[in-house]
Design a protein that fits this description.
It is a single chain. This protein is mainly α. Helices cover about 65% and strands about 5% of the residues. The protein has helices at about 5-10, 25-40, 60-90, 90-105, 110-120, 125-145, 150-155, 170, 180-200, 205-230, 240-250, 270-285, 295-315, 320-330; strands at about 255-260, 260-270. A hairpin with a 2-residue loop joins strand 1 (about 255-260) and strand 2. The longest helix has about 30 residues, at about 60-90. It starts with a helix and ends in a 10-residue tail after the last helix. Pfam families: Rhomboid (PF01694). InterPro entries: Peptidase_S54_rhomboid_dom (IPR022764), Rhomboid-like_sf (IPR035952), Rhomboid_protease_S54 (IPR050925). It is a multi-pass membrane protein. It is an enzyme of class 3 (hydrolase).
Amino acid sequence: RFTLQTQQRCGFRKVAKKVEPKKGVAEEAEQTEILHKKGEAPAPDPPTPRIPARSFGRLVKPLVFTIGFTGCSFGGAAIWQYESLKSRVQSYFDDVKADWLEKKRPQKQAGLGKQVNQWWNSLSDGQKTVTGIIAANALVFCCWRVPSLQRTMVKYFTSNPSSKALCWPMLLSTFSHYSLFHMAANMYVLWSFSSSIVNMMGKEQFMALYLSAGVISTFVSYVSKTAMGRFGPSLGASGAIMTVLAAVCTKMPEAKLAIIFLPMYTFTAGNALKAIVALDTTGLILGWRFFDHAAHLGGALFGIWYIIYGHELIWKNREPLVKMWHDFRTRGPGAGGNGSM
């Protein structure tokens, strides 16, 4: 996640104010006397700029939003998984029949469409899942290039604890990148770890984890900025991606990783996670402001916590919710039979 400095470098630089020489006391008194003789009042002093106060009370609403959104994400993922399994079982015989008809029917040769279909079928489940996330990030990146949308993008697609909009930017800024290199680097890391994380969790649990991680890492950034009094907008998917990376490295600490530009040097996932956490902790303590180290650190810690404790506390206790949804679906309009899957 980039912070205020990067935003200023990317086209949000404020116009420098002209510094006027200060007037002496005698000159100011003389000017006031002349205005008094003319019957005019002296010009009032310009208002001082408002400095955001370190009010932790403003974080109550983002905290409630974070808890509520996280609960809704995992609850929705549990229902999504239930519906997916139910649909898969009900459509099994239809798929068998469709496959039989496809073999009997003469195949049509389509150039580009066939190539796209082959490419899509060659992807893993994890890569198919993150394709939608990458497309959403690309769409938001294009919106940053539209001049008429700049005000809206800054308000809703950057997270800032001193802004009027506090809650929805916590989620929307996770899909927001102003720099092409920033977006390309984040999406490459997400693509690289997509197969591992989806094989571990399934696409439904992964989506809940990813969206929740974006909001939680932004809230940690809010707390850090408010505590240090360093307010400014941030944007990027790095906080959520740090959760994915930390989850995979915690689950498979002995896996071998390498940097894309230095493939000859390999290291274990556990050592990589320790180095990243140490780097972001150092940046947070020393006050480095180029990256949002608090968001990175919050995302990494959430990923570690979820693998060690969160999966047992949250995902494995979804059965009561799924049972309630099952009862609702079987009693609702259009439910046929006895509601069995």
